Amino acid sequence: MKRAVIEVTGMSVKKQMRFVILEHEPGVLFARTAVIHYDWMFEVKDSLRTFATDPIDLLAQEIQSNLPATELAKHRLDYLHLRGDIGRERGCVTEIARGTYQVNKSNQDCFDVLLSFQQPCFKNPIHCNFSRRTSDSKNSSWILEIMID
Length: 149
Fold this sequence. Notes:
Strand order of the largest sheet: 2-3-4-5-10-9-8-7
Number of helices: 0
Largest sheet: 8 strands, antiparallel, barrel
């Protein structure tokens, strides 16, 4: 079931898209890595734009910035709600955080978003900027910069 929150501000209408951050513990048949990592998944139309990073403590006073990230293939929307075993020996996922986001900028070299968390609760939105390390559009190597006000 697709669901969107529509916010009406004056004459403009902004659609708030959903995101989830999942801790992925890879299973024995997961080919990309055997290391526990975070999958940052952002609803974009009928799929999830997904990046993988090392795990970080989102509740820490100082969040690591300039975190290496890898853009992954689009994932299906089911991952917004999928928890536990993901099947076919690919491991299991645990929710770290979820909420809605607004896009500041999105293109092949930049995905700049403002996250509003439902879990864990943050007083203010967090600004996340995924930027490609090189101008090679086939390169999936990115940097995640996190800014907290």
